[in-house]
Amino acid sequence: MEKKQTAATESHVLVFPLPIQGHINPMLQFSKRLASKGLKVTLVTSTSIAHSMRAPHESAINVETIFDGFQEGERAASPDEFLKRYKATVPQSLAELIEKHGSSPYPVKCIIYDSVLPWVLDVARNTGISGASFFTQSCAVSVLYYHEIQGSLKVSSEAEAVGVVSLPSLPELEFNDLPSFVNGAGSYPAIYDLVFSRFSNIDDADWLFWNTFNGLEEEVVNWMASKWPIKPIGPTIPSMFLDKRLEDDKEYGLSLFKPNSDACMEWLDSKEPDSVVYVSFGSLAALGEVQMAELAWGLKRSNTSFLWVVREPEKEKLPNNFIEETKEMGLVVTWSPQLEVLAHKSVGCFITHCGWNSTLEALSLGVPMVAMPQWTDQPTNAKFVSDIWKVGIRVKVDEEGIVTQKEIERCIREVMEREISNEMVKNSEKWKKLACMAVDDGGSSDKNIEEFVTKLVCNSNSFKE
Questions:
Q1: Could you name the Gene Ontology cellular component terms for this entry (predicted)?
Q2: 172 and 310 in one domain?
């Protein structure tokens, strides 16, 4: 797709994600959409991850690295230490980057920042540019966090006993459907603070973008739009898997992991259509050793071909001899080209932790899911997968909180046996079409992106006029 040759080419935006893969991917894809409409876009990475990132394949996007308090190869001892040093260092680094571009032919007009980094808005204000907050989670989860902050979501032993939470625009939710952090920080106080900090100055941001689309969360989007000028711009999936308007946009383009692409695709090519279970828990989730074993033997019991992503640090949790015992039916890799895998004709089911990116990818590619949420927003996403969008089933845990091998087998069979899962398959196809329509020319998300570009070019700093 050719860029629009308009005054937009003189408008420069910075895009600044939290430096983890699940936040980089959607914000990079949004960058590509903006660049396709003529904006000059610079994706800002930082030194703590720059050395481990694969080079970008999207020439329309500039990439610049700023100092975040960590030298190449240096690791923080904990999330708390990382975030403390990161926040102490990055504001000055960002300001220097903005000022550097101030004397160039393309001064920065706006910074689009990860919503979990709300202090970036202060940097924007101090350097005289506008600020846009980008939410990488669903609107439904955001509403739950908002109600928790407002005190209208009462989560306690009493709430757990009652069993149902009722809030405007949301379906009735049981206790285990709620994001883990509405019940306290647990062992992750720094991440807990990140999750809720995004609302600290939400009323002050010039634009509010969400990685979702109107039809997917219609009631929630309408309720939020009555409070804030939100703009859904998703799903942020490479264009060749959706509307195909951005030429050569076949992958995200920046990765902290090296996928076993050839091995995955050659193996999938050897399988029958809809015969493979794909298993991945994303870039962060870590299963306990007992749960890992139950999942492994559940896959074996299902007697179904499987492709399982087990990150290198997690491989030691696999049962002894499991890979050898299942080599005829399964392939275990340390990372995969997930979009290509989900789009492959042999894949008939996705066992997922229900991270928001993985959920949107499966929805956009029409793959039914077995939802096995772990923490944060994943339980709520799993609720929507199974009960609202009806594109999968959710596993049941035992009294110890473990999903047994018998339960894994049951869920796989229920999704893979098409005479049973016919409704899931039809619904998956429906959401696939709606996702494509949202980002295609004239779709709801495409219109929201066009509106942002137009207002930025016209030097209008806010949707709040």
A1: cytoplasm
A2: no
